Amino acid sequence: MAEAVPSSADFSATEIMTVAASRLLHDGTVCFVGIGLPSTAANLARLTHAPEVVLIYESGPIGAKPNVLPLSIGDGDLALTADTVVSTPEIFRYWLQGGRIDVGFLGAAQVDRFANINTTVIGAYDAPKVRLPGAGGAPEIAAQAKEVFIVLKQSRKAFVEKLPFITSAGFLDGGDAREKAGIPGGGPTAVITDLGILTPDPVTRELTLTSIHPGVTVEQVKEATGWDLRISPDLKTTEIPDAAALAALRDLQARTARAHGQSAGGEG
Amino acid sequence: MAEAVPSSADFSATEIMTVAASRLLHDGTVCFVGIGLPSTAANLARLTHAPEVVLIYESGPIGAKPNVLPLSIGDGDLALTADTVVSTPEIFRYWLQGGRIDVGFLGAAQVDRFANINTTVIGAYDAPKVRLPGAGGAPEIAAQAKEVFIVLKQSRKAFVEKLPFITSAGFLDGGDAREKAGIPGGGPTAVITDLGILTPDPVTRELTLTSIHPGVTVEQVKEATGWDLRISPDLKTTEIPDAAALAALRDLQARTARAHGQSAGGEG
Amino acid sequence: MALITPLREAVSSLVRDGDTVALEGFTHLIPHAAGHEIIRQAKKDLTLVRMTPDLIYDQIIGMGGVRKLIFSWGGNPGVGSLHRFRDAVEGGWPRRLEIEEHSHAGMANAYVAGASNLPFALLRGYTGSDLPKVNPNIRFVECPFTGERLAAIPSVRPDVTVIHAQKADRRGNVLLWGILGVQKEAVLAAKRSIVTVEEIVDDLEAPPNACVLPGWALSAVCHEPGGAYPSYAQGYYERDNRFYKDWDPVARSRDGFRDWMKRHVLDTEDFAGFRRVLAETAGPKAAGQEVA
Amino acid sequence: MALITPLREAVSSLVRDGDTVALEGFTHLIPHAAGHEIIRQAKKDLTLVRMTPDLIYDQIIGMGGVRKLIFSWGGNPGVGSLHRFRDAVEGGWPRRLEIEEHSHAGMANAYVAGASNLPFALLRGYTGSDLPKVNPNIRFVECPFTGERLAAIPSVRPDVTVIHAQKADRRGNVLLWGILGVQKEAVLAAKRSIVTVEEIVDDLEAPPNACVLPGWALSAVCHEPGGAYPSYAQGYYERDNRFYKDWDPVARSRDGFRDWMKRHVLDTEDFAGFRRVLAETAGPKAAGQEVA
C-alpha cells in the first residue's frame, strides 16, 4: 500500500511556484488577475481546488473561465467564457476602486524588502538603462485589492535592496508606512517564487522566508536575494504539488501551447 | 384650381403650437427631448420634414423612433426603436455634458422675462404653496445644449415677472448674465406657446413676441403674460400648419391614444 | 454571493429601520413588489433615494416610513402630481418630509461616484440654477489644471439598493436590458442589495457586453414574477397605464389612501395577494393580469 | 454624420501634423491598418496616446513621427519589449521620445473625463507610487465634503481617435463587441474620429444595450476588412501570434526595422498590399490569410 513519495525531480521549479501560488487562492475569492504567471496560477486554482474563484481581467471580463491560458490580458477566450464583459474604465472604477476585489494577483520585474514593485525602469527614470513596460493596472491593484499576491522568479536582479522606481506600493518603508500613506487595501501577503514563499513580518512588514520549496537550501534563497533575507524561525517546507494539480497544470499548458504555439503572456 | 385657404378654425391652439415648435427642428439635428409637448413636437418633426433628426431621451435611448408617443421618458417603444440604449449616467455624462446636443427641447411650469424656467415650487421653497415635480434633467439640458426650445401654454400663471425659483437657467438677469455665469450652451432661442413664438432680444435677451398665431390678437398675448411684454416691430404671423403636418400630428395622437388610452406624458 | 431567497426574508434581513434605501427604476422595472414588502414590514425612519420617485415612493411616504427623500424629479408619469409626496412636503402629513433635491445629472453622477467608491461626484452642473441655494450638498471645486469651477456633490451610498430585473440564473447572476436607468450604479453603490426578477433560468443567454450583475456582488435575488407591476418589464409585460391614472384620485385623500393601502397592501400577504385584491377592486384589466 | 470613405482619404483629411492621436484597442481590435496609413502619409510631430502601446505604436515611433507618448503599459504582449519604443526612450533614436506616464486606472479615467467634457479625472490612484514624482500631470485634490485626498489628472482629449470595430451600417453606425477596452470613451473624448470596420452591413443586428457608436458622432467610417491584423477581431479572425513573435527580431535592429518598414509598409499601397507582401516574406500563415 505504500505509495512512492514524490521527489523534487518530479516537477520543475516553475511548476512548484505555480502550484504553490494557486493554492493560496480560496474558492469563491474574487481575484484581479495579472497576465503571465498570475494568470496561470489563478486558472490552475479554478481548474482544481477553487472552481468558484471569480477571475477579473483589466480588459473587461468578469468571471472569465478560459479553456486555454490567455496570451494577453484581452484574449477572446476571456470574453467568450466570462459572465459579462464590461469596459476597461468600468473595471477600474466600479470593480477595483469600488472595493470588490479580494486578491490582486501580480507579477513584477523587481521587488524590494517591503514588497514594493518596480515595473517601470532600471536606472534613472530620465536616463533609463532598461525601459520596462510600465505600470499597467498594478499601482491601483496593489493599493486597492484587499490583499495582494506577487509571483516572480527569485534572483539578485529581481529582489533588490532598493528599487530604482516604486511603480506599485507594497509596504513602502515598512511598519505602518502604508497605512499612514492612506492606502486602502491590505497590501502583499505573499511573494511566491521558484525557491520559496516570502511573507511580510506582521510588525515590520519586512519580507521573510516562511516556506522553502523542497530540495532548495536556505543558502540558495539568500544567494538569490539582494538584501540580507530574514528567515522565519518557523520555516516550513512547501508542500509538494499533488499529482492532480501537476496533471491539471500540464494539461492546461499543453492545451495552451496547441492553441497559441507559445505560452508566455503580457498586457497589451 | 383655387384651394380653400385653411383658417384658424381648422386646427386647435395646441396643434399650431406643436406644429410651430416642430418646424424649428432641422433635419439631422441632435435633440435632447423632454417628455410631453416637446416629445410630441420632436416626433412630429421626425415624421414630417426632419426624418434624420436624432432624438435622445434622458432614460437612455439614442436615436429613438417611437411609433406612438411615449407616456413617460422611459417607455419600452423608445428602447426598441433606438439605435442604442445606454445608461442614464452615460446620457448625462458622455452625450449631454459631452457637448453633443444641438437642441434641448423642454417644457416648463413657469418661465420669466429672460426665459428662466421654474419646475420646482410655487411659493417659498421651505413652505411651498405648490410643490412641483422638480428639476429632472432640465438644469443641465438648459445649460449645455447648444440651443434650447421651450414649449408651454401661455398664461399669467405660467409667464411671470419673477420666478419663485429658477430651476433651469435661461438668460438669468438678461444681457450677458448667462455668459458671465459660465454657462456653456447658447440658451433659449425660442419659447413656443399656444398664442405665438417669443424669442430673446439679441442684446437684452428679453423675450419678445416675434410671431403671433393666426387669429390671436396682441392684446390676448399681453393679457396672458405676467409682465409688460415687448412686441417685435417686425411681428410676423405664424405660418398656418400645412395639411400634411396636421394629418401626421393627428395620426400620431390617434395611434398613441389607441396604444395607451391617454396622451399626456411625464418623466418618471 | 447572492442568496436566492423569498422577498419577505430578504426585506426583513437586509432593510433596517433608519436605513438609506434606493429603490431604483427609470420608468422601466420599478420594484413595486419590494416596495410593498417594505410597507408591510413597516420599516421606519428611512431615507429614500431615487432619481424619479413615483407611485411606490408616494405609498411608502404616505404610510409614514420616510424621514428624508433625496431625489431629482417626483411625479406620476403621464398623469400629474404625487399627492402623498406633496402632502408630506406641503402639509407635513403624516410627518414632515425632509428633502434633498438635485438635478438628474447630479443624481446620476452621484450614483456613479458611489459605485466607484469616490466620496464625491464631479460634474458641470447646476450653473444658474437656484438649487445650490437650497441644497448645501451642492458645492463647487476648482480644476487643479485649468482653474475651472465644477460642481461637486456627495456620492450616493445607500445602505440598501432594491431593483427589479428580467432574469437571474441559479447562481444569482442577474440580467437586465432595455431602459437601464441607473440601476447598475445604484446596486454597486450600495452596501447591500436586493434584486427581484421575473424569472430564474438555467442560462441567462446574455448577449456580449449585456448589463449583467454577478451574483457574488449581490445580497439577495428574489423570484417575483410581475414584481414591477404597474410599471413594465421589457419582454414580459407592458405598463398598466390605468393603474397610474387610477392612483391619482386614491392618493388625493388621506383617508382614501389609508383605506386603499390597508385593503391592498397591509391586509394582503404578498404581491400576488395584492394583485388578486386589485383584480377584485379595479377589475382584472387594471390588475394587469392579462399581460403578467 | 460619419462619411463612409476610403481610409487613405480619412487619414489624409482628419489626421494632421502635430495632432494628439489615440489609436486605441485593448489587445482586441487594434487599428493596424489605420496605423500603417498614418506611417505611409508620414504624419509628423504627433503626440500619441494609448493605454497599451504595442507593435503599431512601435512602428510609428520607430519611423520618427512621434514627439510624445502618453501611456500606461508599453510592451509586445506575450513576447517582451517594444524595441523601437525602448530605443527612442533609452537611445533617443530616431528622435528623443517625450513620455507622460500613467497607470491604467489613470488613463481609463482620463478618457472617461474627456468623453464627459470634464477638464480633469478624479480617482483614488497613484498612492505610494513614484509616478507622481515623474509626472507633473498627476496632482491631488481634496474632497469638499470629507477632506479626503484624491488623485487628479488632466482629461485625455485627442484631436483624433482611431479605432477598429466589427461592423458598421450604411449610415455609419458602428457596433463593437467582446473586449471593449476604452474605445468608446476614446472616440467620444476626441474632436475627430476614424473607425475602420470589418464589414458594412444593412442592419447591425445589435443586441439591446450593445456598444454602438452612432454615425452622427463619428467623422469617418472606413471599410478595412482584416484591419486589426495581427491582433484579432472577435467573430472574424484570431490573433496571429507568430507575427508578434516575429516582430521581436525585426524591431531589435534599426536597419532591420527600416528595411522591413520600407518593404512592407512604405512600398505598399494599402493594408491589402501589406498583407500580400507579408505573405511573400513570412509565408501565408504569418500574413493571417487563412483566417482573414
Give a verbal description of the structure.
The complex is a heterotetramer, with two copies of chain A (268 residues) and two copies of chain C (292 residues). Residues 263-268 of chain A have low confidence and may be disordered. In chain A, the strands form four sheets. Chain A has an eight-stranded mixed beta sheet, sandwiched between helices. The N and C termini of chain A lie far apart (51 Å). Chain A has a single domain, classed as 3-Layer(aba) Sandwich (Glutaconate Coenzyme A-transferase). By secondary structure, chain A is α/β, with parallel strands linked by helices. Chain A has eight helices and 14 strands. Chain C has helices at residues 7-14, 32-40, 55-62, 83-91, 104-115, 131-134, 183-189, 241-252, 254-266, 271-282, and strands at residues 3-4, 20-23, 46-50, 66-71, 98-101, 120-123, 139-142, 149-154, 160-169, 174-176, 192-201, 211-213, 220-223. Chain C starts with a strand and ends in a 10-residue tail after the last helix. Chain C has 292 residues and is an alpha/beta fold. Chain C has ten helices and 13 strands. In chain C, helix 5 crosses helix 7 (183-189) and helix 8 packs across helix 9. In chain C, a hairpin with a 4-residue loop joins strand 9 (160-169) and strand 10 (174-176). Chain C has two domains: 7-101 and 157-239, 3-Layer(aba) Sandwich (Glutaconate Coenzyme A-transferase); 120-154, no CATH class. Chains A and D meet through helix 3, helix 4, strand 9 and helix 5 of A and helix 4, helix 5 and helix 8 of D.
